[in-house]
Amino acid sequence: MLRSYVLIGFLSLIVISCGSDSTINKGSGDDDNGSNKPPEETTGDFVMGADLSYVNQILDHGGTYRDSSEVENPYKLFSEYGTDVARFRLWHDPEWTATVYEGENNPMYNDLADVTEAISRAKEHGMAINLDIHYSDTWADPSQQKIPEAWRNITSLDALKDAVYNYTRETLEHLDEQGLMPEYVQIGNETNCGLMYSNAPQNFPRLNVCDGNNWANAGELINSGIEAVRDVASNSDVDTKIILHIAQPENVSWWFDNMTTTGNVTDFDIIGFSYYTPWSKVPLEQISDHVSDFSDAFDKEVMVVEAAYPWTMDYADDYNNKFGQDALVSGYPATKEGQRDFMIDLTKEIMDGGGTGLMYWEPAWITSNMKTQWGTGSAWENNTFFDFEGNVHSGIEYMQHEYERN
Predict the structure, then answer these.
(1) pTM here?
(2) Of 29, 82, 95, 149, which sits with the fewest C-beta atoms within 10 Å of its C-beta?
């Protein structure tokens, strides 16, 4: 996700009064039937996913999730409303997630301990896992791919490959030993220009594919991560699939063309890309063509592993919202029904193109006393599946819609 766009002007503070659209009730449609049983899933082998990386931190800092005003376990709630896969990001040593809070002995978040707990909670409620390894201590996305502090003094590509392999392998072995092996692993997050280049010292291996022909170096690093996943999965009960992830569909062909040839990266399973309307020029109705083209060109599964759409232009706190009016698509207003309808149509587009999944980014990032580097609360509360009282609303219904596969 393009989180660090906070620093480069992508944030928009939109002050518009909240609409009066209603809170979701269990079951399909908008009428309250009082049932606690969601409709049967009709998506077949199509994966419905949700990135829940902030949930533990939100719960620790005063956030509350509700269903029809009753407090609910968010992991249970997402599972009941049709989430097949919970996605969690992993940072190498994110000390800043503890130091942003006052006092001492605060826990870190999105480190291995937190992610282990989150995976355990998600699997308890029947969800599979997508582990999104950033290979950074902080956000990795198209605007920055910072080197983990522990690796900054590495000067040899071979030494860096060993570090990536060992870190990836040890992480997955730790999870597998506890019965928590992920069903999917991402080698990097939105790696449009590569990995670990933003704050690279002079003697650090060159890995920026947008600034110099460093595809071979970047490819060797990615292959080290892939090798580690394959090695652990070969001794696991879980046949883990590997995802490579690029931001925005217009960047996919260029990147995979180069990475699968000059980079020599071919042993992966899924092409993953982010689709965000403020930052992509590809219209919604052309997503199916792109998905089909990617699948045909590279003979891989294709998933949208990050997407979102606003249900309001209002805000619940003083933390500026990332999605403003520029996120809106004609015919899909910033209402709960508009969000649901956009996500239904996006899902149809992915299915029509032969894609195999859609993962919504941080649909549970409600406002709370949670802190980031840039604010307290949420910059995403107008894109969640919860109203400002924490009640799940009708936007989430797209997961249970009755889709027809071609």
Answers:
(1) 0.90
(2) 29
Q: Which CATH number is 88's domain given?
A: 3.20.20.80
Helix/strand/coil (H/E/C) assignment for every residue in 20-32: CCCCCCCCCCCCC
Q: For the segment 330-375, what is each residue's pLDDT rounded down to a tens digit?
A: 999 999 999 999 999 999 999 999 999 999 999 999 999 999 999 9
**Region of residue 179 (phi > 0: left; psi between -120 and 50: alpha; otherwise: beta):** left
Question: Structure tokens of 142?
Answer: 């198209």
Helix ranges (H only) for 1-111 are: 55-60, 74-80, 96-99
Whether residue 3 is predicted with pLDDT greater than 90 in this model: the reply is no
With respect to residue 405, please indicate whether it lies within any of the assigned structural domains: no
- DSSP assignment, residue 40? P
Is residue 196 within 8 A of residue 137, CB to CB? The reply is no
β-pair type (357-360, 301-307): parallel
102 is catalytic: no
Task: Using only the alpha carbons of the chain, give its radius of gyration.
Answer: 20
Burial class from Cβ neighbours inside 10 Å (0-12, 13-18, 19+) for residue 182 reads buried
Long-range contacts of 68-72 (CB under 8 A, 24+ apart): 68/23, 68/25, 68/26, 68/32, 68/391, 69/389, 69/391, 72/392
Q: By residue range, what is the domain housing residue 14?
A: 3-27+35-400
- Cα distance between residue 323 and residue 105, in whole Å: 34
User: Does residue 184 form part of some domain?
Assistant: yes
Which tops the pLDDT comparison, 42 or 56? 56
301, 306, 349, 362: which is the annotated catalytic residue? Answer: 306
Q: 143 pLDDT exceeds 80? A: yes
Q: How many domains does the chain contain in total? A: 1
- Residue of 183, 190, 349, 381 marked active site: 190
Q: Is 306 among the catalytic positions?
A: yes
Residue 251 inside a domain? The answer is: yes
Asked if pLDDT for residue 5 goes beyond 70, the answer is: no
